[in-house]
Predict the 3D structure of the following.
Amino acid sequence: MEKLPAFSLKKFYWKDYLTILLGTFMYALGVTQFVMPHKFVLGGLTGIAVLFNYAFGLPVSLQVFIINAILLMIAFRTLGSEFLVKTIVGVASLSFFIGMFESFQLPAIMTQEPLMAGLVGSIVAGSGVGLVMSVNGSTGGTDIIIMIINKYRNVTPGRMMLLIDLVIVASSYVLFRSVETIVYGIIIIAVISTSVDWVLNGIRQSVQFFIVSQRYEEIANEINVQLNRGCTVLDGTGWYTQKPQKVLLVMAKRSESNSIFRLVKSIDSSAFISQANVNGVYGKGFDRMR
């Protein structure tokens, strides 16, 4: 029987989509149950939808769904079909979870400590966005714009999110005429952006692989083609067998570890692999030397 191509293990791995569902659930929970009940403002497309909800009573879930449908058509040409599929799942699940929480109409949480409620909601929401982005997905809205910029510029998603969100929060002055509301909004988006980077930095930490296999050429080719990562072939000698042996050196993001293990196992289940965390990886596909 012919072996399935390695890309099927990477692109359609169910765990990625469970991560997206968990992330969008956390985002919806943080926004609807902690932020909105206290009339705080936040950034992103959701922040714009929340402002329209405060002003006109429009359902946030419906606004998020319609605007994202337009942005998805723009993102397809730039970010490709895989990103589009994951973003559709992210947008659909986020719209569903927000609509679900809106329909519950639960009482406000931590009514005596509104700022603390906002901070807790920001951490939950930001961590949710970070989880979605960690598997190259998106919750839509400004996330799509950020992912496009991040593809061509070496900037952190959290920093870009902060800059865009500052503009959106500042515009809330037109509705509330309150500097205090803007200050609270800035605190919330700062916590959200920090939470996004905290999650991504933990997941996207660079790792180093040493792979020993008789089928090293096939493994190296598949890593190049399917994962778009370079490989270095080292000459080694097995001291026990006293035979020459090729060793693959691969640098990758931590989030790509499972994909590499699955790929190697699909080609050579008896391969020897070691993985180690590394800091300060610079060059194409990683950080820029400054």
Notes: The CA atoms of residues 130 and 196 lie 4 Å apart. The domain at 206-277 is CATH 3.30.70.120 (Alpha-Beta Plaits). Strands lie at 206-212, 231-238, 243-253, 272-277.
